[in-house]
Design brief:
Blueprint (H helix, E strand, L loop, with lengths): L6 E7 L5 H11 L4 E2 L8 E6 L2 E7 L4 H7 L2 H4 L2 E7 L6 H13 L10 E6 L9 H7 L10 E5 L8 H12 L1
Parallel strand pairs: 1-4, 1-5, 5-6, 6-7
Antiparallel strand pairs: 2-3, 3-4
The structure holds guanosine-5'-diphosphate.
The site of guanosine-5'-diphosphate (GDP) has 15 residues, from helix 1.
Amino acid sequence: DRRNKQISILIIGLNNSGKSTIINYFKNKDDRKFVSVPTIGFNVEHFENQGISFTAFDYSGQGRYRNLWEHHFKTCNGIVFVIDSSDRMRLVVVKDELELLLQHRDIKRRRVPILFFANKMDCIDALSSVKIAAGLNLEKIDNKPWQICSSNALTGEGLQNGVQWLTAQIR
Ligand code: GDP
């Protein structure tokens, strides 16, 4: 029974994938409490809403900052993994980062649900969520619930559905 517990959701993805825009969408929807932590060489954002705490990080190869936030893996209840669907060049980088996440000792054996946002679906050259799922080999994730949703963080399209799926997995 998690009713009295704080739920912690991590929002991760490469820089420029749309994490801040997604966070802003939920912040601005109505009056919600949030805190932005000043940048210390990498980006981190945090806000809380109805007992759910959201924390966003740039998840990219700069190993020296990883230890500043990897401890969140141990306690997070769900992960939002944001992908720029129009950034075909970096899909291989996304795949590597996802692999690192899935192999992380605090994630590997936990049944932590992962929501993938195939973001920037409005871009003319965006890959479909089906193509991204195939490119990232999501089918092989067999010990965690996962879902991929196309989204447009600028309009909010797809965001609510995705987050609803995620919180339903947790509660
Ligand atoms: P972050 O680095 O992951 O936090 O990415 P941002 O939220 O700062 O977004 C990077 C850029 O992509 C910004 O210029 C956003 O306005 C833009 N952006 C974010 N989401 C979308 C989207 O769904 N569609 C389009 N066309 N642009 C987006």
